[in-house]
Amino acid sequence: MGILNELRNAFKNGGYLTKLIYINVIVFFVIRGIDVILFLGGQPLGLIVNYLSLPDSWAQLIKQPWSLFTYMFTHYGFIHLFSNLLFLYWFGRIFLQYLDQNKLIYLYIIGGLMGGILYFIAFNTLPVFANSTTLLLGASAAVFSIVVATAVYIPNYQLYLMFIGPVRIKYIAIIYVVLSTIMIASENPGGNIAHLGGALCGYLYIHYYRKGKDIGAWIYPLIDKVMKLCTRSTSNLKVKYKKDVTKMNDKQYNRSKKQKQEETNRVLDKISKSGYDSLSKEEKNHLFKMGRK
Description:
Blueprint: H1 2-13, H2 16-40, H3 47-52, E1 54-55, H4 58-63, H5 67-70, H6 78-96, H7 101-125, E2 135-136, H8 140-153, E3 158-161, E4 165-168, H9 169-182, H10 189-209, H11 220-230, H12 236-246, H13 250-274, H14 281-291
Antiparallel strand pairs: 1-2, 3-4
């Protein structure tokens, strides 16, 4: 029970990125656990995963409309799950150094929806898929949305890859978009089409964001409410922290808020002049903490 409590507390107290990873992992183990029960009972496997995956026909989609949302949290193979969550973690951490958690959740969900819709349109309009019967599952389109958004927003940010060395993330995003395009003519055309839908979502979001238009702002309050439902019962430490904060009067609070904003502006100005690598460890930590708020 100690391990379960630790996992529960990690989920409750973690940021939105942590929650996304936990939800995907939990759904995976629930699906595989149910399959073990079905197998031992002599029943066919895949009942739950089919129920959560996005079909390619109108008739089936009408029966399970929730699948347009649930498919992006559904995995059946461990390698599929691991690779998606690894990319989500890498690029999610970078994303949160510059942008906030609501934007991360928005891009994950809208990118997944756009990928699912593009997949569905393709399989219902293109002649090559006329006789196909497939299911779409996995977080790839949602993760692609975050990857491309991050690469477009800070294209020259570098990751150090094993055996390769420093690589700017814009090249990583370009390579994966190109691969997804040419791999449409493969054994997984639906998944690769969905990748492109997610990538397009990430690009468009940052394109308009740089013009001063946050196209996801309308849904951020709803995201906050949903995520708070996941962490309604908070730990004593967290409650005590909140009580301590409320003891600050308005003047103290506004002064503290102004100082933090001035420090954030100074750090961002330094990035624009000298690049992210010029920041000190303290400045990077400050930027990361502000991005999680």
